[in-house]
Amino acid sequence: MISSDGNQHPIPLTPPGQDALATAALVIGLLLMALQLWLLTVALELFQSGRGLDIWPLALISGAIFAGGLGILRLLRRRPGLRHGESEVPLRELL
Amino acid sequence: MTDPETTRRAWPRLHWQREFPYQWNADEAISRRELLNFAVYSSGALFAATAVLAGLGFIPRSSSGPGVEIARAADVPEGQAVYFHYPTSTLGDEAMLLHHPNGQFAAYNQTCTHLSCGVFYQPDQKRVFCPCHEGVFNPETGEPVAGPPQRRLTRITLRQQDGMIYATGWEL
Questions:
Q1: Could A53 and B57 be called an inter-chain contact, meaning their C-beta atoms sit closer than 8 Å?
Q2: Is there a cis peptide before residue B87, judged by omega within 30 degrees of 0?
Q3: B36-58 residue pLDDT tens
Q4: Number of domains observed in the structure of chain A
Q5: Which of A66, A95, B105, B149 is the most exposed place for a label (fewest CB within 10 A)?
Q6: CB–CB of B47 and A59 under 8 A?
């Protein structure tokens, strides 16, 4: 970023609070994905042991996590964005 | 305009940020948003795999095979076992017919559900035993009761006709 005095100023970093919030949301999402992977291994174990009728609750939980992820994506696309340089950093650009 | 020194003091940069001075909004390699997209698509793939397994779980997994003559019921004393092959005589199709003390018959594939060693019947201890890792199965149900196996033995369905016992299929 170059100011009127000709000096190059560093581009401000994401405000610390919002940055931590966005990172926390992302980390929680990745943890939920790890949970889905674990559910898949449990489902495979049940399937191989012939207890296939017990798998559907696992599929429901996995589907709920996926639906939550889709909801977050949809929410981010709906939020009106702000241009760079404005005082507030919109969530959709933060992520 | 904000003084650079003020900005630097407000958000002091870490060492790696000084060496790699790309900001989140200027980074075109991969953004957190792209990572989130990737994570959601991966989540969808994991859900799809689990859903497929759930769907397959509703399909009965017993199969009917060729009717194979095993032995005459009278030739298998109570508490003893007869070893045979089913459905083919190839390696991995070893099976055993157990005659329980209560008079009932049961047959299982001899492949251990842990690491595929061969299991055998120990009538004196009333158990099916896998010597590789000391896995123990219940001879009446085929369910694992001790050791590392977590899944029951593949059960072979039987039919008795005119004193002869036939293997007719298998179920997981």
A1: yes
A2: yes
A3: 888 899 999 999 999 999 999 88
A4: 1
A5: B105
A6: yes
Q: What's the pTM?
A: 0.60
Task: Determine, yes or no, domain membership for A17.
Answer: no
Residue B27 φ then ψ, to 5°: -85, 115
Say if A57 falls within a structural domain: yes
What pLDDT band is residue A65 in, cutting at 50, 70 and 90? Answer: very high
The alpha carbon of residue A53 is apart from the nearest alpha carbon of chain B, in Å, by 5
Q: What is the pLDDT of residues B114-167, one digit of tens each?
A: 998 999 999 999 999 999 999 999 999 999 999 999 888 999 999 988 889 999
Question: Reduced to 3 DSSP states, what percent helix, strand and coil does chain B have, rounded to the nearest 5?
Answer: 25, 35, 40
Which positions 7-36 of A are in contact with B (Cβ < 8 Å)?
7, 9-14, 16, 22-23, 26, 29-30, 32-33, 36
In a domain, A66, yes or no: yes
pLDDT over 70 at B108, yes or no: yes
Provide the residue range defining the domain that includes A64.
52-82+90-95
Rounded CA separation B44/A78 (Å): 21
CATH numbers and ranges of domains, chain B: 4-57 (no CATH), 62-171 (2.102.10.10)
